[in-house]
């Protein structure tokens, strides 16, 4: 038994080193520069404490990942805007293709780019709440009501009302956060397909991350703004490709409020 102790200690040390090496390596965990307004929580990598499909099962009708019905519909969603570089390009493509999408905006960026935020509204897209400053919130916190309210106020200054959907920054949500958002009047909008576009992927790579996984009811996650040096140009170009491909396959594009009508409004 005594001989086993140093052996186990040695194993534990090796394990810790492996974990540290993994965490330190941008290669292994994916690297993504921060947004122009520094985001409190760091990169938009996967920080989910609980899988969103488990959350969806725990909170049906409250945590929304994908539509499960007979219609061949799909929703495009764009996070972290508005900015003055990529968001207008995304809007140009959507306008050209006649497609409406859902944008999860940051209040801080609405304040920085009010005219772009207004354009999103004017062109008929749906606007959801992605907090004011993109903190990493995971669990219920006094910060959440402040963040949601501050974002809502930034929208309200431009005459924008949010659509009642909250997308947690980093997709990180524990049950306590979901319940807090619900108590504040929000449904929690996750996604079923992650383009991973924040990694600065090429048009073809973004397309590949989406194309093979789309099914009726899918909610696709992309970003309409990134950080300094973050290249979303591949993602922007892929928007048109995705629309063309899915339209050709008979899909119809809807916004999240169209995909998930609020229970009060349903017949
Ligand atoms: Zn985000």
Count the E strands: 9
Number of domains: 1
Structural class: alpha/beta
Distance between termini? 68 Å
Regions with pLDDT < 50 over 5+ consecutive residues? Answer: 20-35
Q: What assembly state would you assign to the polypeptide chains in this entry?
A: single chain
The radius of gyration computed from the alpha-carbon positions, rounded to a whole number of angstroms, is 20 Å
Along the chain, the helix and strand elements come as: HHHEEHEHHEHEHEEHEHEH
CATH class: Alpha Beta
- Remind me, CATH topology? TIM Barrel
Number of helices: 11
Task: Summarize the biggest pleated sheet.
Answer: 6 strands, parallel
User: How would the global form be characterised?
Assistant: globular
Could you state the CATH homologous superfamily?
Glycoside hydrolase/deacetylase
Bound molecules: zinc ion
Give a quick rundown of the structure.
The chain is an alpha/beta fold and 267 residues long.
Describe it.
The chain is of the alpha/beta class and 267 residues long. It has one domain: Alpha-Beta Barrel (TIM Barrel), CATH 3.20.20. The protein contains 11 helices and 9 strands. The chain has helices at 4-24, 26-29, 52-58, 86-97, 107-112, 114-122, 143-156, 175-183, 203-211, 233-248, 256-259, and strands at residues 63-64, 73-79, 102-105, 126-129, 165-166, 187-189, 193-194, 219-223, 252-253. Strands 2, 3, 4, 7, 8 and 9 form a 6-stranded parallel sheet that branches. It has a 3-stranded parallel sheet with strand order 1-6-5. Helix 4 packs parallel to helix 10 (233-248) and helix 9 (203-211) packs across helix 10. The longest helix has 21 residues, at 4-24. The protein is globular. The protein starts with a helix and ends in an 8-residue tail after the last helix. It binds zinc ion.
